[in-house]
Structure formats: structure tokens, C-alpha cells
Amino acid sequence: MLKLIQSFTRYRQILPMQRINCVQANSSFSTAQEPVNEQKILEKLRGRFPSASSIHVEDTSGGCGAMFNVAIETSEFKGLSIPKQHKIVYDALKEEISKIHGLHLQTRVSD
């Protein structure tokens, strides 16, 4: 778990995510849509990956819910290619992804 968080942190230092202006990001969204936040994504992922050893979600858009970094470590990914791992996560977050601008995803197989 520590390795995953260190890797996640190192990536953010090397390639900092561009922050999006909340007004600009939210202007294209319908007001009828409930905004996405870290807690919503975390709850959805915990429901989909109950045996995950680590799930980390960070809003990188200054709190407006437009861009997220997500890191998941679970044994459920064992034997799957990274694209297949990511597809499983994208499928789990299908509704949320339709409401956000971007998602940076890291997946790992736990020991």
C-alpha cells in the first residue's frame, strides 16, 4: 500500500495535473446532475472492490469535482492486463465518469 501511495505521489510531483477553473468546468454540466466528489467515487469503488487493500481518491480540480486521481490495489486484478484492470474500474465508475472532465487511474495487484 505504501508503495502505491509513494508512486502516486511521485507521479504527481513529476507530472503535475493542470488545475481546472471550477466555474469553467461546471459550466458544461446540467444543474440537475448531482456533482461528483471524492467520497462518492470512494464509496462506489469500495462497493465494487470490497477486498481492495488500498483505494485512494483525490480531487485535483480544486474541489469542484472535474478531475480526479484514483489509485486501487486489489488481488482482483491478478492475471489481468492493465487495460482490462482499467476497464473494470471505468465500468464501475461509468455514471461518475460521464459527469467529470478527466480521471487519472493507477491500478496494482496486491500481494
From TrEMBL:
This is BolA-like protein 3. It comes from the Eukaryota. Coiled coil: none annotated. Pfam families: BolA. Belongs to the BolA/IbaG family. GO terms for cellular component: mitochondrial matrix. InterPro entries: BolA, BolA-like_sf, Mt_Fe-S_assembly_factor. It comes from Diabrotica virgifera virgifera.
